[in-house]
Structure formats: C-alpha cells, structure tokens
C-alpha cells in the first residue's frame, strides 16, 4: 500500500467534508456547516486554541461519532476498506497518547490494523518488518511498549496508523507529550517519512512552528462554533528540515498565521505556541 | 543461585520458627494435645503417610474442581456484567453484597442441597472462590483502556474483535490476581466442606484427630493443608507468568 504514488492523476480529494454540523447534547454546536477539503497527498494542519473541538472533529472523521448533518468522504473509503461494511471508513487515526497495547510487541502493535482488515498474520508481520528500518525502529520488533522511550513509542503508533489507514492519516497532536528536544527530532523524522510516502495527512497541533514546518497548508479555526477554516498556503520548498524555521519566509508566514489567530496586532510581533 | 539468594531469608526464618517450636514445647513442657512437638508432627506424617496421601488427594481434587467451576462461572459472570449495563447495575452490586453473607453459616445448606458426597464440598469451594474471580475479572474488563478500544474501532474492529483483541488481553492481569486469591483460599473451602459432613479428606482427618485429642495428627493434617494452599497459589502464579510473559502489569 505504501508503494502507490499518485502522480499522473489529476488531484483528487483525499478527504472531503461538506456541511458538517455537530453538537454534544445540550451544548452549543462545535461545528456548523463546516466544509473541509484535503487534497490527496497533501500535508494539512489544523491550528486552533484548546477546547475548539479538534479532537471531536477527528473522532467524527474517524467514524467514532456520527455527525448531526453533513457528509464525510475519503478517497480510501471507495477503494481499500469498503468490505468492512456499510459506510465504515478505515482511516489511520493516531491519537494524542500512543495507545500502544502493553500486551503486544512492537511488531504486533504495528500490525493490528492489517490484522483487523483480514490480512494474514504472516503477511502483516512481513509488511511491518519491511517498514521498521526506515522509521528508525530496526531491531525493536520483539520489544514491548514499556521497554521503549516516548519518541519511539510514537513512531510505533505512527507506523500502526500508516499501515491501517489507506491513504488518509489523522494525527492528533502526536508530539505534544514529548519533551522539546525529542519533539524536534520527531518533527524531522516525520518530514522524512512523509516526504517519502506522501500520504494524505490531516494534522492537529497547538504548535505554530510545527504546523508551518510540516504542512503544505495550515487551516486556522478562529471562531466558535467553527463554521469555516481559514487556509494559509505554506509555500516553503521541500525537502525541509529544522533549518527551515530560521528562514525569512518562514518568519513571514508565522506572522501571518499569528495575525489570523488574533494573537498579535496586524503589525506586531508575537510568540510561537498558543 | 540468584533465586536461592532471594529465598534464603524466608527459609532461614522458617527454620528459626521450627526451632523455637521444638525447643519451646520441650522447655515449657507443653502437653501434646495443646501443641505437639514438631518432631512428633513429622513422626505422625511419616507414620500415616499412605493414609494422609489418600486424604490429601481427595481434598486437592475437591479444591481443583471447585476452582475450575469458579473460573468458568466467574469469568462468564464478568463477561455478562461487562456486556450489559443492566447486569452491571443489578448483578454486580449483588455479587459484592453477597460477600457480607457469612459463607460459613451458609455452608450447611450446601450439604442439604448437594448431599454428603463430593458435590457439597465443591459447592463450598465455589462459595469461597467465585467472588475473587468474578469481581477481579469484571474490574479488569471495566478498566480496559477506552482509547485503545476506540482506536481499534476506528480501524474497523467489530464487537467480537474488540472482545478478543482488547477486552480479554486487558483483563488478564486482573483475572490472574483473582485466580491467585481464589487458589489460596480454595483449600479452606474444601476443608470446611469436609467438616460439615464427609467420609474422607484432610478436613475429616484433622477433625477426627482433634476429637481424639491427637495433636500431632491434627498438626500433620494442617501442615499438609497449608502446603496444598501454597502449591495451588504457586501453580496459579506460574500459569500467570506463562501467559503474561514479559508484558507490563
């Protein structure tokens, strides 16, 4: 599945959301008539303050919650996992906590998505083993989660999503619990892996630097309820690395973004993390 | 070697206690029907080895059968409690409340229901051991990490897959906690069952010996019963290590 690169075809929507409305019982709506499109093979981040309902959005996209109205379509729903049943999307959801199963080894944790999709255990293990080295996990296949560091655990969690998720990955603040040094190295790591596989990724973060460094497009949620997401094209050249954050263009985009978020006055200076 | 080093303090301590027992009974000249000398207890063990072996086997068999039924009923109840919110609200509190009923007072009823044969002994063992298995397993199911369950659902896992790949492995450590507790107290259940009415078994043996004021035989039986309890506990722990392996918790 990792070998299909979409180059010749015209750009299709990796994820297409239309008119999404959702509210928890007895509360103000979180989303109202929200449209959202993620082009296939793009890395798109959503930046918003806490409590805006980002995680709820992901749960809706992952099919764990049913929207009050609106449609959610993924490119993979028509292709890869249709046999799972009526309207069941299987996407690669990477939660904030790594959620690795303590009773499974790295190998079996990463293989769970394939296992659930009916791939034979042997084939699933073969595919995991093939990917371990390039994700910096060589030699860890027989280890248990508690024997790994936080960063390594997130890599396993990412690999699990990668193998489970057709062409669409939802990453919910995956690096927020890591210390600053580890976070930087994990961002570089994700850049490398993504630039190789070019999956469609929707990424949630609080960290503006992180969003700009990784993404093709940043979506800003500034209002509540969220009725639209303000796009910001990130036209920084790839391949990128941490040096990119020192770029003049990067600083310019960062200022733009902070303005959109209302964190700085139209001509002022401001900090990096919400 | 490492294991020996770890167990050495407890072995020495037991040896010390045994020494105190033997010397104390001699020095203070305690009558054998109050506390027999340890050497007499060993002598009684040796003298009646064949008979004790027969009684031992029966009591062990009762404890094992009772444990097996408790595991089956306990796990099934835990599954029921976990899968139905109505059962959680009705059955679970009832099981917990049932622990306030003095089991010893209830035990004679088992004899009325299941007679003087092995059935009533197994029933008493179940009365003792059902609770730790059922409640610990139910707690294990309940405390399974919800986010892992959601993640599996997002990957398309159905009910059966969630149960097999999420609930069961999550609950295993708690189940084994319950099993170890049950194993340790199962011998007590079997002994009580025998006291209430029976022909043989170590419970019957110790009761008869006590009636005849044969302190050494009573202690010989009690010693064997404790060893049986320890052995069952260690066996449960061994299975636990085998199943859980290197995984955490």
Structure description:
The complex is a heterodimer of chains A (274) and B (249). Chain A is α/β, with parallel strands linked by helices and 274 residues long. Chain A has helices at 54-61, 106-110, 112-116, 121-131, 150-164, 180-197, 208-214, 248-260; strands spanning 13-22, 31-39, 43-48, 69-74, 92-94, 168-172, 200-205, 217-221, 230-233. Chain A has a domain at 11-86 and 199-274: P-loop containing nucleotide triphosphate hydrolases (Rossmann fold). In chain A, helix 7 (208-214) crosses helix 8. The model of chain B has no long low-confidence stretch (mean pLDDT 92). Chain B has helices at residues 2-27, 38-47, 49-83, 85-97, 103-114, 118-142, 146-154, 159-195, 202-211, 215-244. Chain B has ten helices and no strands. The interface between A and B is medium-sized, with 27 and 22 residues.
Distance between the termini of chain A: 36 Å
Mean pLDDT of chain B: 92
The level 1 CATH classification of chain B is: Mainly Alpha
Uncertain residue ranges of chain B: none
Number of helices of chain A: 8
At the fold tier of CATH, the topology name of chain B is: MetI-like fold
The chain pair with the largest interface is: A-B, 27 and 22 residues
Global geometry of chain A: globular
CATH superfamily of chain B: MetI-like
Number of strands of chain B: 0
What is the makeup of the main sheet of chain A?
A: 6 strands, mixed
Q: Give me the Rg of chain B, rounded.
A: 22 Å
Reading off the top of the CATH hierarchy, the class of the domain at 11-86 and 199-274 in chain A is best stated as Alpha Beta
The ordered H/E elements of chain B are HHHHHHHHHH
By DSSP, the count of extended strands of chain A is 9
Helix content of chain A: 25-40%
As laid out across the biggest beta sheet of chain A, the strand order is 5-6-7-3-8-9
Uncertain stretches of chain A: 1-10, 78-87, 268-273
In the CATH hierarchy, the architecture of the domain at 11-86 and 199-274 in chain A is 3-Layer(aba) Sandwich
């Amino acid at each position: 599945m990792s070998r299909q690169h979409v180059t010749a075809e015209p750009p299709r929507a990796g994820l297409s959301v239309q008119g999404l409305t959702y509210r928890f019982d007895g509360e103000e709506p979180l989303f109202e008539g929200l449209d959202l499109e993620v082009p296939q093979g793009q890395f798109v981040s959503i930046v918003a303050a806490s409590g805006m309902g980002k995680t709820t959005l992901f749960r809706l996209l992952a099919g764990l919650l049913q929207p009050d109205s609106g449609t959610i379509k993924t490119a993979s729903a028509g292709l890869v996992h249709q046999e799972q049943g009526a309207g069941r999307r299987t996407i690669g959801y990477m939660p904030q906590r790594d959620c690795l199963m303590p009773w499974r080894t790295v190998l079996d944790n990463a293989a769970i998505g394939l296992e659930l999709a009916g791939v034979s255990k042997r084939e699933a293990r073969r595919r995991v083993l093939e990917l371990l080295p390039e994700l910096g996990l060589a030699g860890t296949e027989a280890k248990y989660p508690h024997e790994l560091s936080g960063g390594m655990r997130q890599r396993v969690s990412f690999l699990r999503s990668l193998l489970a998720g057709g062409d669409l990955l939802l990453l919910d603040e995956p690096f927020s619990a890591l210390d600053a040094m580890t976070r930087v190295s994990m961002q570089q790591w994700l850049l490398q892996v993504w630039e190789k596989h070019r999956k469609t990724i929707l990424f949630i973060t609080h960290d503006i630097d992180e969003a700009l460094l990784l993404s093709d497009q940043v979506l800003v949620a500034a209002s509540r309820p969220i009725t639209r997401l303000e796009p910001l094209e990130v036209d920084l050249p790839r391949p990128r690395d941490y040096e990119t954050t020192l770029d003049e263009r990067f600083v310019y985009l960062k200022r733009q973004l902070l303005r959109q978020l209302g964190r700085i006055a139209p001509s002022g200076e401001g900090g990096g993390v919400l | 070697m490492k294991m020996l080093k770890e167990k050495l303090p407890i072995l020495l301590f037991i040896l010390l206690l045994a020494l105190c027992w033997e010397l104390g009974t001699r020095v203070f000249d305690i009558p054998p029907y109050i506390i027999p000398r340890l050497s007499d207890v060993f002598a009684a063990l040796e003298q009646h080895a064949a008979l004790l072996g027969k009684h031992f086997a029966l009591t062990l068999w009762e404890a094992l059968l009772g444990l097996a039924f408790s595991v089956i009923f306990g796990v099934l109840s835990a599954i029921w409690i976990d899968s139905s919110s109505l059962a959680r609200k009705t059955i679970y509190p009832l099981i917990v409340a049932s622990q306030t009923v003095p089991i010893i007072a209830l035990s004679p009823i088992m004899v009325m229901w299941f007679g003087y044969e092995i059935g009533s002994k197994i029933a008493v063992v179940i009365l003792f051991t059902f609770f730790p298995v059922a409640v610990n397993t139910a707690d294990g199911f309940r405390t399974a990490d919800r986010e892992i369950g959601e993640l599996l659902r997002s990957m398309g896992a159905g009910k059966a897959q969630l149960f097999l790949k999420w609930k069961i492995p999550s609950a295993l450590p708690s189940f084994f906690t319950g099993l170890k507790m049950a194993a340790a107290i199962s011998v007590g259940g079997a002994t009580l069952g025998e006291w209430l009415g029976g022909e043989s078994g170590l419970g019957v043996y110790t009761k008869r010996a006590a009636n005849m004021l044969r302190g050494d035989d009573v202690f010989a039986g009690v010693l064997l019963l404790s060893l049986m309890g320890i052995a069952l506990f260690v066996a449960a722990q061994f299975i636990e290590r085998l199943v859980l392996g290197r995984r955490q918790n």
